[in-house]
Amino acid sequence: MPTCRMCTQNYPNSQFISGNGPRYQVCVRCATENDMLAEGEQSNLYSDELAKSRSALFARRYRPWAFLGAGWILYLSFGSGIELWSDLLLTALVIGSLATPVLHFLSKTKFRAELARITP
Fold first, then answer.
1. Which three-class secondary structure string do you get for the chain?
2. What's the rounded Cα separation, in Å, for the pair 65 and 70?
3. CB count, 10 Å around CB of 79?
């Protein structure tokens, strides 16, 4: 597999732009970042399927943080006045607040491996 001149990464031939001179052996990612693509030339860096899978991966990664933040906002605004449910909700939020950073840290390698697998 050829190597990109700019980022020195190995990619298949389909990930390189065509051209001579400064465009020779430049991957699509580097060409996009350095404005080397012509106006009519489409970048095939992220297809629709790839963009959906990347956004789903990031959504799965940060979903617990969003639910935890929403839970604390609901508890502080509405939940503290309810007798039984306020204690149960507070207990669940405290357990979630302690468990979410640990789970986030432990799943970092799996996230990076999946991200590297779907990154062109």
1. CCECCCCCCECCHHHECCCCHHHCCCEHHHHHHCCCCCCCCCCCCCCHHHHHHHHHHHHHHHHHHHHHHHHHHHHHHCHHHCHHHHHHHHHHHHHHHHHHHHHHHHCHHHHHHHHHHHCC
2. 9
3. 18
Nearest to 94 by CA among 66, 75, 78: 75
pTM: 0.62
Phi-psi region of 27 (alpha: psi -120 to 50; beta: other; left: phi over 0): beta
What token pair was written down for 40?
């009519």
**Domains in the chain: boundaries:** 1-45, 48-118
| Tens-level pLDDT at each residue, the chain (120 residues) | 788 888 888 888 877 888 888 888 888 888 888 888 777 666 666 677 888 999 999 999 999 999 999 999 999 988 777 778 888 999 999 999 999 999 999 999 999 999 988 876
